[in-house]
Amino acid sequence: MSVVIITGSCGLVGSEACTFLAKRGFKVVGIDNNLRKRFFGKEGSTNWVKKKLKIQINKYEHYNIDIRNLGSLEKIFIKYKKNIKLIIHSAAQPSHDFAKNNAKIDFEVNALGTLNLLRLTEKYCRYAPFIHMSTNKVYGDNPNKLKLKEKKSRWDIDDKLYKNGINENFSIDNCTHSFFGVSKIYSDFIAQEYGKNNKLNTGIFRAGCITGPNHSGAKLHGFLSFLVKSCLQEKSYNIIGYKGKQVRDNIHSLDLVNCFWEFYKKPRKGEIYNIGGGTHSNCSIIEAINIVENITKLKIKIKYERKNRVGDHIWYVSNLEKFKKDYPKWRQKYNSFKIIKELIDSNKNYFDKSKNNQGQ
Q1: Cα–Cα–Cα angle for 71, 75, 79, nearest 5°?
Q2: Smallest Cα–Cα separation from 227: which of 99, 345, 344?
Q3: Which of 33, 82, 217, 320 could, after both became Cys, cross-link 226 (CB 3.0–4.6 A)?
Q4: Adjacent-strand bridge partners of 272
């Protein structure tokens, strides 16, 4: 039986990949020790997803292992080495704010964890495609140097060269990065070099904002998910900088995993792809708030912090042309409105409770 190893298996991307590949006959080996709870507190815990996966997937096997521990990881690769056909590495420390105050653990998880997995892939299953989840934050604040124009509810690009978004040739140098962005640069580059130098089939996906119903959105990470939960639970939501007009590039986790599937069928060596909602699916924070309020008929309580996050993007939209050229069969099914609507529907319990409270 074909085996897929998925790190961060209880996170948003990992859990989507688990379900997707189980339906295609893979035995799913999930690696996730719920470090997210340590990063973001109780609301960031992914234990609820682990329980869900064990119920939904007969062939799911879970390992509560830290990806920084090479010895523990190696036992898994040895156990399944004859049948490993794919590795999806989606485990990470994903927060700007957490990384700033916890640079060591951020680097160890993002950089060392990735190196461990690449070493083991080369040693035990070198022909299996290795998919690495990177981030648009490797570009630091260089996107903020583009010519932008301010509109009523968003910042927008005012440069014809980038009207279709930012492509893979955009510079990562001579700019300010978050500590999170720096650790992800290492993991991004080492995954590239294991492909280009060591000839592994590595695909590096520099994602925008990924979201979907399995997202354990928290204050420090998971913009749309946390926004929806804040509204439905009648809690306040913090807008941080840029007048709330900063534009986010939103891709649904299922659309992203379909990208992985296309890469798996036709892998390449050390290839990078900017992947996100693109021109099809993006919105500002203000626009997202308006969509949530229009659907739920609830008013979101807003708190505004004028100082923006270091290295945060004012406007970022992924240019998807390279991926679409290499994998023309891929189709994008979700836009930002459809994503937000699904997030609201998946939190019906909160929504119904809010409506009942309003009627009292």
Answers
A1: 165
A2: 344
A3: 217
A4: 204
Residue 314 and residue 155 in contact, taking contact as beta carbons nearer than 8 Å: yes
Reference 62, options 132, 111, 5, 135; nearest CA is 5
Helix axes 336-346, 285-296, angle to 10 degrees: 50
Q: Are 144 and 208 in contact (CB under 8 A)?
A: no
Backbone dihedral angles phi then psi of residue 131, each to the nearest 5 degrees: -100, 120
Q: Which residue has the tokens 């639970």?
A: 233
Q: For 9-40, how does the pLDDT look when each residue is reduced to its tens digit (9 = 90+)?
A: 999 999 999 999 999 999 999 999 998 888 87
Token duo for residue 63: 């390992």
**Do the Cβ atoms of 176 and 182 come closer than 8 Å?**
no
Relative orientation angle of helices 12-22 and 253-265, to the nearest 10 degrees: 60
Mean pLDDT value across residues 243-264: 96
- Of 54-63, 66-75, 168-177, 310-319, the least confident: 310-319
